[in-house]
Amino acid sequence: MTVTGWVLFAALVLGASSSQVPRAAGSERERNCSTTPYLPPTAVNTTLRLRALRNAMAPLNISAYIIPATDAHLSEYIAERDARTAWISGFTGSAGTAVVTPNQALLWTDSRYWIQAERQMDCNWELVKDPSIRGITDWLITHISEGAEIGFDPFLFSIETFKAYNVRLAPANRTLKSLPDNLVDKVWTDRPPLPPDSIFKLPDSIIERSWQMKVGDIRQQIRDNPYKPTAVLLSALDETAWLFNLRGNDIPYNPFFYSYTLLTLDEIWQVYCSFVHFVVPKPFESLQPP
Ligand SMILES: *[C@@H]1O[C@H](CO)[C@@H](O)[C@H](O)[C@H]1NC(C)=O
Ligand SMILES: *[C@@H]1O[C@H](CO)[C@@H](O)[C@H](O)[C@H]1NC(C)=O
Ligand SMILES: *[C@@H]1O[C@H](CO)[C@@H](O)[C@H](O)[C@H]1NC(C)=O
Ligand SMILES: *[C@@H]1O[C@H](CO)[C@@H](O)[C@H](O)[C@H]1NC(C)=O
Question: Where would one find coiled-coil regions in this protein (predicted)?
């Protein structure tokens, strides 16, 4: 968001809250998981969802499963079908990490979202008021036994995120187990479908450089690079959209389409996705709408 965007956003938020009637004393709109539990109407009953996920975890012999709130392109803004943290926990905030074990379910998120989480999660979930990976690994080391395996979906972890977990878990003899089939997707029976293809070309009148020029520039950088890479892989959605002057509508309020690009000195591979993870790459020409 630009600075102007933030100022406008802040003005809207402050304006909205100052015009609201102050809430009654107490916090009756947040859940209360005491002996006589109270759940606000906004809380989601996750009992059956958690049971299904745990049933999927059991044959894999994992002691915990990590569910980050991102998609397979590590997007910050995601489509509903990628909102796995929201589906499993009820919490719809844009940042948070869920961990599910055979008998516990926890959500780590930052202070922007604590009240929201208390209104959306039921008492199956524990809120941890700390968004750090260190906080998550400390909890795992305390609650998961030595030698145990912790499952994760490799499409939802950057290499840096993996390293941040592993640098603390590995010395403590807890192993991260890569599970390419996402376990939430497996049990999410009414998961929203992929949107229909929405890809379109930017009009020539607003394009500063053609995709051929941009590809040429990147190939020059490949040739000049001392590491002599054979290819460049683009996985972030804005990268492919920018490079080919294309836009789409796969994610609400974001002009992108699901895709990966593999660029070599003489080939362009597109994995352009009406798909969950990988499909057969389509020929590049099919990406160029008339
Ligand atoms: C939760 O409910 C219990 C029992 O009804 C009450 O004593 C306690 O104050 C409540 N907690 C909050 C934070 O409202
Ligand atoms: C949540 O759903 C389960 C399974 O349908 C049900 O047994 C339980 O009573 C529900 N919990 C609440 C708090 O409504
Ligand atoms: C399951 O995991 C435990 C560690 O949590 C390990 O001791 C055991 O050998 C594993 N069993 C199988 C069948 O892999
Ligand atoms: C991890 O396992 C190794 C080999 O079994 C052992 O020597 C080491 O002390 C363990 N590390 C911790 C932190 O328990």
Answer: none
